[in-house]
Amino acid sequence: MAKQLINLHNVFYQYEQTVALRDINLIIEEGDFLAIIGPNGSGKSTLLKIILGLIKPTKGEVFLFEKPVSQFKEKELIGYVSQKSNSFNTGFPATVAEVVRSGLVKKVGLFHRYPKNVRNQVKQALKSVGMEMFAEKNIGDLSGGQQQRVFIARALISDPKILILDEPTVGVDSKNVRSFYNMLAHLNREHNITIVLVTHDVDAVSISISHVACLNQTIHFHGFKNEMDSMSDKQLEAWYGHSVRKVDHHSEVQS
Amino acid sequence: MIDAILNYQFLQNAFASGLIIGVIAPLLGVFVVVRRLSLIADALSHVTLAGIAGSLYLSQSFGALALLNPLYLGIVASVTGSLFIERLRRLYKHYEELAIPIIMSAGLGISAIFISVSEGFSSDLISYLFGSVSAVSRQDLWIVVSIAIIVILFLSLFFKEFFVLSFDEEYAKASGLPAKWIHILFMIVTALVIAGSMRIVGILLVSSLMTLPVAAAMRIAKSFKQAIIYSVVFGELAVLVGLVSAFYLNIAPGGTIVVTSIIILLLTLLTKKIRIKGVQIQ
Questions:
Q1: What is the CATH number of domain A4-254?
Q2: Among A187, A200, A204, which residue's Cα sits nearest to residue A125?
Q3: Is B223 on the interface with A (CB under 8 A)?
Q4: Which of A84, A92, A138 has the highest number of chain B CBs within 10 A, making it the mutation to test binding with B?
Q5: What is the pLDDT along chain A (255 residues), one digit of tens a residue?
Q6: Residue B26, φ and ψ in degrees, nearest 5
Q7: Least crowded by CB within 10 Å, which of A37, A54, A195, B37?
Q8: CATH fold of the domain at B2-281
Q9: Among partner residues A82, A94, A114, which is closest to B223 by beta-carbon distance?
Q10: Where are the domains of chain B?
């Protein structure tokens, strides 16, 4: 049986009077490529914050690498790629290499300098996302899709076991969405990195992911992607809150 | 000029303090600017003024405190102000910028009261407001040296954490960095630099030495490392040219340093424009 990397047990979260999440039971195993999908306001970001240990659930338990989240200190094992548009100052005077290097901050630890071979590590991380030619470019000069790849390289440089991505294709033009997901699939298969991504884009499930979790305050479905494909439009509508039409990115790109 | 510096202690104090401040103010200023906290420097300088005015009043009213260096109370006020700003930014989460006018007006208000109730320290006060070449004492110089040691130590210990926090705060928190504590330390160090710089540049212009060299550097820097190097070079140049011209023209160094910084900024803007035009012609 594969190792349980993330385990949420009966998680409940309330913001003042509003229930954001209820009865969340979710197990993510090593090697999974999971998309957590749901409409805006379904609690996706809250769920991510709970997994990352940024907020504590009102009720329930969270285990990371089979340890209670409060006892889990090896944060470098979890690579996080935040939603680009929310957190990144595009005018920041930094090169791609400087940004990627900063992904080692937790692994290196307080009061220590970056290791001597940091240049090679940066090069390798950029190579794994196909961005090695851009090391000396200014981060603000890249396109949305290229910036997201750089942020993935920043997460990869500390050799994480899990990569968590928050709405990774926001700001990525539709032509590059497919190659972006292909790159994630490559990391999942070839580097054995467990991938969890959160998106409001139902179309994302038509790409190379293995598992899907449908979230709207609670989890309406969690299973293999092909099991979700057999969900009727009515079932999808009941979960999403309004009518949903599945679009295959592959056929869209080819046409 | 060199002869004058060698012969007069007050000039040695002013130039040594100026050159140290020319390094530490832009060095920390790079982080202040990229974190979009430029106005906080202004708010803290006004709080420092309250401390200085309070100290001048106390030394006038109580004989035992006559020899108290106003810089000490200025530092206390600045650091306290920085902690208050942090508290207010957390209280008004959705209106973080509100902390700046609150603290700035509190600082100015308290200063106005002390200035009104005291008598006859206007000339002292003018030197604190716009800086002075002649008023920097040896004690002031040692305070600046101590602050510089703290800043350099702090930046060398937390440089990489500062970078992450400045570039992407959410990522920093998700990486498990003690973001809150690092930020509070950053605010305290910023407060110290402002209090230390004020003897040379003056309270009203101190934030300019943290922001103008950085604004010029950001126009031409291609990396964060370059932004830091250019900022320090421009800061030093502004202080040096500013102090020399202030000495010869017998005017407040705050003004000459700021005007030099503005000229450097304009030159970088012009250089960039010429470079872009050159590329377009090619």
A1: 3.40.50.300
A2: A187
A3: yes
A4: A92
A5: 678 899 999 999 998 788 889 999 999 999 999 989 888 888 888 999 899 888 899 999 999 998 998 888 888 889 888 876 556 677 789 999 999 999 998 888 888 888 888 999 999 999 988 899 999 999 988 888 888 889 989 988 988 999 998 888 776 777 777 778 888 888 888 888 999 998 877 666 566 788 888 888 888 888 887 777 777 777 777 766 666 655 554 544 333
A6: -70, -30
A7: A54
A8: ABC transporter involved in vitamin B12 uptake, BtuC (1.10.3470)
A9: A94
A10: 2-281
